[in-house]
């Protein structure tokens, strides 16, 4: 749609600008402020320059958390995206089952994140949980509070449970937009099921899948509540992801300077990814219209 | 007419063997969907199951369904102010947040969907970055900001903090819906002598009613599911249910039955409204971009 140039439109945007400035810009300035200062309590601050940043870059703690975060995000993407597409392809075509499936699939998305953690905490417990009890009965050694591998599996399965539906819903929305004529043409050409998927369905889903991948990447990159409730970042620090580490540092130990420096680096990484996200999306929008 | 005939041709030409394969296809479909739904529902079933058991039954015997069905856990929550006030607190700040987010997002989304102005693209992107900002980064500064202006432990503090990601979300979703409304409608209304506010409320808002509903649903939802910020910004008076739940550990261990019942009750609000937005839920998650 052609848009009219109109500078007065700024007045319509102003409320958003003021509100977001209050809730984003002021706190961020505080963070920047802390990141270059040192304190010994009593509200006395000293200029520390880039000390915290240098310390942070040399510190293994952040790099380890970042590494774990990257591995976690890659694994859940590698599972959730194909699984989501599979589910979307197997959605019922029409009738009341479509609604039933849509509603049931959306259910995990609407559960408060700590309740998601609680559900899996209970579900995986060997003494009272269905999953833990069954695994123990099968003779599999499974204890997510002691064994790092079990903790990782639990956190990953939990995330797959929580968010695969998001990918499936988006992929389904993409599939819905394919006109019937495409399938009929493929049928006349006697295209195989794989070729229909590869050359018709996948390209048509590309736009929404891109959104799904990037949303999942972002949100898994700042995951906090669910693993915190289930494992508390442990055993040891084997499931301490970036956000968990940061909250530990900022609110647990009240290390203002290092935490602020950490926050800024974290936010810069997110900003960079957001920019890629936005650019890709704008290009897809242009291609679409 | 032509559409109807093309629709029928493949069905008529298809040999019977293909029909059989199609029926087998429906079965694998049903199996895949069935397995997936079981995977999704099993943990939720287990939570529901536990919420209907007594603690002795939970801890001492392993049962697939409650043998001594009890509603006592729910009764505990619904009669103890320490518990149910959590739900009320959560609902208050969630509703406040939804109202604030929509009120500021509606005009902004209109501006983004209809006009170009200096810096519009940058502003739109900057809004998005706030949706992508990790709440963990903002936890400490929010704590200090709201403490220093005397809003700590109030509902409005949490409502404003959640605006950080809900306002961008609302702007993006609404903009997506508004793009679908032809511009001629605006122009006709102005020619007919409507002022902007009157046009916006009387004509435009009814046209995007479903968009407003979806945006409201998503603001409600993301504010409802968030824990980190709401827990950091409250201690007593505005403590959300999610934070109260983390404190079920008593001297005698965790009260599993009550914890499960509280969990089930937090799922209810989402489950109630999901039916109405089922066809838009993908659009909402994709920030209006489907």
TrEMBL record, chain A:
Highest taxon, organism lineage: Bacteria
Iron recorded as keyword: no
Keyword annotations of the record: Membrane, Transmembrane, Transmembrane helix, Transport
Transmembrane residue ranges: 12-36, 70-89, 96-123, 149-175, 196-218, 264-284
GO cellular component terms listed in the entry, alphabetical order: plasma membrane
Domain (ABC transmembrane type-1) ranges: 66-277
GO biological process, one term: transmembrane transport
Record-linked Gene3D superfamilies: MetI-like
Protein's cellular compartments: Cell membrane
Coiled coil: none
Topology class, membrane: Multi-pass membrane protein
The UniProt record lists the keyword Lyase: no
Family of the protein in this entry: Belongs to the binding-protein-dependent transport system permease family.
Protein name: ABC transporter permease
The organism of origin for this protein: Roseovarius atlanticus
